[in-house]
Amino acid sequence: MYKAEFDKHIQNRSVSNAFVFFGESGFLIDMYTKMMSNIEDANALSYYYDEYDFNSAKAHLSQGSLFGDRNILIIKTEKKVPKKELDTLFEYCTKNPDNIFIYAYYGSDHKTYNNKKAFGKNSVMGVRFFHPKEYEAQNILLQMAQEKSVKIDKYTLTHLLNIQNGDIALAVNELDKFRVYDREITTKDVESLVYGLSEVNLDDFIKKLLGKKEFTEDLKNILEHGEDEIRVITAITAYLTQLYMFNIYIRVNGAPNALDILGYPAPKFVVDEKAALSLKFKPNTYSKLHELLLSSELKMKSSNVDKNAILLSTLIRLQKLL
Hints:
It is built from 15 helices and 5 strands. The protein has 322 residues and is an alpha/beta fold. The protein folds into 3 domains: 3-129, P-loop containing nucleotide triphosphate hydrolases (Rossmann fold, 3-Layer(aba) Sandwich); 134-193, Orthogonal Bundle (Helicase, Ruva Protein, domain 3), CATH 1.10.8; 202-321, Zinc Finger, Delta Prime, domain 3, CATH 1.20.272. Strands 2-3-4-1-5 form a 5-stranded parallel β-sheet, with helices on both faces. α11 crosses α13. The two termini are 44 Å apart. The mean pLDDT is 86.
């Protein structure tokens, strides 16, 4: 199902106790995971990325609570949990309605969970979350602002979203800056207090990086104002993937076509710029760059690591490969 249908179940109090949240929007996956597990005095166990262990997860759901509290299991991962293990964990929720199991899948294989057959006979609710449209993002921000007692209208929230290039997670984080004001927040407040990604745009940062220019000061600014190290890595990976698609298309067809490559028309200056940049690197270089970035992303998702150090080391190594 999609978000709208799931919202109706929440309103009607007809939700299950087992969930698979997946899709394009990590922000909404996080938001609904928190919402469905926000139960006072519950006995919660959370696994992040590579921490998941089937035996201890199974033991958590199978144990009885001495005080009648509810057992909640949350798994957040980009790797797919084996189907047999998921089915077993779902079954513990079917047997015990006091259990709650949330499988928050952040990977890209959406087809696996996009049908009811994926969950067997268990009453599992699978919800796919797309990136929120502009009006949805505005409503979410407005709701968050009200919860944080921030007085701000939709027009100003739209301005905040635009400054953050539509990244709702960053916009929500910025709301805390306005909590000290006992008055309505204006666009001038937003401009003076919010450091927008538009000022140090990720695309501009990546172009500087690929141009083998000094990047440390820009990187410091980006991280200080809300960006996450993993997000920086994934943004670079996505940018290079797009360049590689341009490279292949041009070598096969002789000239770029944005509609064929990107799936949508783009301004000529954008197409020309990406086409020129894409041809600066050989296919073998693209392969090495992707291998480096994916390996570094995996390291960052391990527990107890210095993500900042891994990121800086990765970017230095990346420039040496160019």
